[in-house]
Amino acid sequence: MIRVQDLQKAYGNVQALRGVSFDIAQGEIVGLLGPNGAGKTTIIKTITGFLQPDAGVVEVDGIDVMQDPRGVQARIGYLPENAPLYPELTVQATLQLAADLREIPEDAQLEKISRAVYAVGLEKHLTRPIGTLSKGFRQRVGLAQAILHQPPLLILDEPTVGLDPRQIVEIRGLIKSLAGQSTVLFSTHILPEVEALCDRVIILMNGEIRANARLDELAATGNAVVVLGERP
Ligand code: ATP
């Protein structure tokens, strides 16, 4: 589903990615784990076609993102870190706007919105303005936007950052249930998040991959903790 080959990216003299390569197969749920500044967002923005790498190849579902960014974006549901939402819009209006931006035909919008709303448990909140929702519920709206067009791949950038412990559990539960329908790549700096959700983890440090392994393999070597230092 994703092929990343020798990705390199610098911002001025900051080398954010130093030759990153990995593959993600259809149906996997993979955690991209690393501390602040490791390069997680840079990888995600490159896969989603919002950022041009200096070198390397990214393919999603066999499509080269540099050649056909819109084709790739049609296959991805993307939840950015701190997804921008208009506080005065209701949940319903927000999702309608997202459906328009996705160019979902009008006669299909109602069904797609209902499906997404149900999948993230927002049925009772459709008429509420975004500004009255808790951060956990706003994140549900972000997830609903991401899955509106039923993409085969979900990419979530630090989906639980800034949430309280109860909201974290709820959002993790939702990610797990969404993973039943899509391949999922999400970034995090929290090891237990990976342990709660993933088949496989890619550990990124300073723009380089330090480990790419199934969780049981890592646990056997204690590698994740060694790489990341102290357990958070
Ligand atoms: P975080 O968890 O803080 O978002 P991250 O792992 O997602 O971190 P990136 O945001 O990809 O890391 O950043 C990788 C490196 O590139 C960091 O050193 C960061 O300061 C730098 N960087 C990112 N965006 C820019 C930019 N627009 N201009 C300059 N440097 C940047």
TrEMBL record:
The keyword ATP-binding applies. Keywords: ATP-binding, Nucleotide-binding, Transport. The keyword ATP-binding applies. GO terms for molecular function: ATP binding; ATP hydrolysis activity. Residues 2-231 form the ABC transporter domain. It comes from the Bacteria. Belongs to the ABC transporter superfamily. This is ABC transporter domain-containing protein. The lineage of its organism: Bacteria, Bacillati, Chloroflexota, Anaerolineae, Anaerolineales. The chain holds residues 1 to 232 of 306 of the full protein.
